[in-house]
């Protein structure tokens, strides 16, 4: 009598499963090669560009993305303009009568205006547009 292995079809056993091209359950496909910038990361960096001192994050981390760099520089220079306005208005608020008017009426309105401009700049940046600020955006174009 010849010997036949027990798992061959001739012996009446079940045949081995055919090789499959799909990975077994529980295993994940290999990660894509190289980091690909996603639009979500880009959006986060554009929003950070106009959030006061946080504009330094996209300025220092996204050196290859010219669009993010423009918005980060615009945000930093806008922060400098806001700081300059704060210094001038604070000094003027120490004057006798004019200081009361500036301190109680003008300062809140000016800084509410700065906040509105920031929100508009964020909205335009996330849509892929540039919000050109007078004087500030001119300096951004010169900043290399």
| Low-confidence runs of at least 5 consecutive residues | none
What would the average pLDDT be, to the nearest integer? Answer: 76
Question: Counting H and I runs of at least 4 residues, what is the number of helices?
Answer: 5
Strand percentage lies at under 5%
Distance between the termini: 89 Å
Main pleated sheet: none
- What does the overall shape look like? elongated
Q: Gyration radius, to the nearest Å?
A: 31 Å
Compressed to H and E, one letter per element, the order equals: HHHHH
Structural class: mainly alpha
Question: Into which percent range does the helicity of residues fall?
Answer: 55-70%
Provide a brief overview of the structure.
This protein has helices at 39-48, 56-61, 66-92, 96-126, 136-142.
Protein architecture, described:
The protein is mainly α and 144 residues long. It has 5 helices and no strands. α3 crosses α5. The radius of gyration is 31 Å and the shape is elongated. The relative contact order is 0.10. The mean pLDDT is 76.
Spell out the key features of this protein:
mainly alpha, 5 helices, 144 residues, single chain
Write the layout of secondary structure elements.
Blueprint: H1 39-48, H2 56-61, H3 66-92, H4 96-126, H5 136-142
């Amino acid at each position: 009598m010849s010997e036949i292995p027990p798992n061959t079809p001739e012996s009446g056993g079940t045949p081995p499963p055919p090789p499959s091209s799909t990975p077994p359950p529980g295993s994940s496909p290999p990660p894509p090669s190289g980091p690909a910038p996603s639009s979500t990361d880009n959006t986060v960096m554009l929003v950070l560009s106009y959030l006061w001192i946080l504009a330094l994050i996209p300025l220092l981390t996204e050196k290859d993305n010219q669009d993010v760099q423009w918005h980060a520089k615009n945000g930093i220079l806008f922060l400098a303009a806001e700081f300059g306005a704060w210094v001038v208005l604070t000094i003027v608020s120490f004057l006798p009568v004019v200081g009361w008017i500036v301190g109680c009426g003008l300062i809140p309105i000016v800084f509410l205006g700065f906040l509105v401009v920031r929100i508009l700049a964020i909205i335009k940046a996330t849509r892929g547009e540039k919000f050109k600020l007078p004087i500030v955006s001119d300096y951004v174009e010169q900043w290399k």
